[in-house]
Amino acid sequence: MCTIRFEGSVGYYAASMLDGPEVVIEGNAGWALGENMMAGKISVSKNAGASVGSTMRGGELFVGGDAGARAGISMKGGSLIVAGNSGFLTGFMMQKGRIIICGDAGEALGDSMYEGTIYVGGSIASLGADATIEEISEEELLDVLAALRDHGIENKRSFTKVVSAKKLYHYDTLERLEKSAL
């Protein structure tokens, strides 16, 4: 496997459309780190800007600090792990994959998500439209903790699991019913 190492911070869209290598960033990252990532691994030691992991389809993206707004927007697979806090609209329109936030999550978490799972180790400012809290199984918790151990995070023991309530799945049907009620 090829490893690409950056000593210092990177700008917008770093490691976008990644399909296989490992990218290590020893610093911060601007907007859209790992946008449309297909496979491979990205690790940023500090913070990542808005839209980290947007539209990612596979692989693993690790943020050693905080993630900005819209982290994991329209994710279609893979894992996004945030050691710190994550901003508003994290997981917006998520379609598949997993987001693990060790710290707090901002407002509208999981707004309009279809599938996928978000795990939060801290507090949740608010859930987005059609997001709901579900009980986490022992097997899921062990899997989350194993993913965190791979990044040297040992101190987390409990997480809140957020998934889609699946009420927006049939939006076209709801829209027709709402229009007929007028």
UniProtKB/TrEMBL annotation:
One of its GO terms (molecular function) is glutamate synthase (NADPH) activity. Residues 3-125 form the Glutamate synthase alpha subunit C-terminal domain. Coiled coil: none annotated. Keywords: Oxidoreductase. Pfam families: GXGXG (PF01493). This is Glutamate synthase [NADPH] putative GlxC chain. It is an enzyme of class 1 (oxidoreductase). Its EC number is 1.4.1.13. InterPro entries: Glu_synth_asu_C, Glu_synth_asu_C_sf.
